Amino acid sequence: MSEDTLLKINGITVNYGVIEALHNVSLEIRPGEILSVIGANGAGKTTLLKTIAGLLKPKGGNIEFEDCEISGLKPEKIVKYGVTMVPEGRRVFPDLSVKENLELGGYSLDDRHLKRELYELILTTFPRLGERLKQNAGTLSGGEQQMLAMGRALMSNPKLLLLDEPSMGLSPIITKEIFALIQLINKEKHISMILVEQNAHMAMEHSQRAYVIENGSIVMEGESSVLKHDTRVTEAYLG
Question: Which of 147, 236, 176, 179 is nearest to 34 (CA)?
């Protein structure tokens, strides 16, 4: 793997029972890059993220992160390597407080000083969370829960964030706020991101490169600024 590649996926195939969800998928992401993956519902986008995160094991192919083979490792081991997923639908712990949710995000870190630094960073980045530290996560708005899910992921000190449908269920105004925060985190902390997003307009606008996935296979890839003007992409995903 070259120095300008953070994560490389080499021809992975993933099955759900007898159903092939991903077929010979290859992609790579560079350090500090936001990469978007777009496609229709059921195309394999979430399956791709789950496989990178270790929640699913590929039937074939492999995944390398900073020259280390991570395909087949347990999710908690992959988190320690620096890969963290923000799942679709937020998945915060509703009966725990905002503070407790954030603390759980840092469970893999032993360095107490680093945990404190990350905690302060999150409260600076998401000041609304700082106002609601004692509030149960289940009582937050959808946008606040998305901020909490992102903050919880940042507590693991990731090098790569896997963002699964961050705008799902959010109003256009809150969606813009969330994407502004995504860009802020990317620029200020140099954290790479793979962005799976049904809102292809937002995904293309906030990523450097993009892959298009159809029926479990990559069918197009390139610079987001170029792909968003491709007639095949505009007709299928941008309207």
Answer: 179
Query: How far is C-alpha 136 from the geometric centre of its chain's CA atoms?
Result: 24
Around Cβ 97, how many Cβ atoms within 10 Å? 16
The residue with tokens 């996560």 is 137
Closest CA relative to residue 138, chosen from 89, 177, 184: 89
Residue 239's pLDDT band (cuts 50, 70, 90): low
- Distance, in Å, from the CA atom of 73 to the CA atom of 18, rounded to the nearest integer, reads 22
Alpha helices in the chain (DSSP H): 45-52, 75-81, 98-105, 112-125, 127-130, 142-154, 172-189, 200-205, 224-227, 231-233
DSSP state of 93: -
Tell me how far apart the terminal alpha carbons of the chain are, to the nearest angstrom: 37
Contacts with 172 (C-beta within 8 Å, 6 or more apart), sequence order:
none
Cα angle for residues 70, 193, 20 (degrees, 5° grid): 55
Reported pTM: 0.89
Tokens of 53: 């995160």
Please give the average per-residue pLDDT across 16-22, as a whole number. 92
Question: What distance in Å separates the CA atoms of residue 19 and residue 185, rounded to the nearest whole number?
Answer: 37
Put residue 15 in one of left, alpha, beta given phi > 0 → left and psi -120 to 50 → alpha: beta
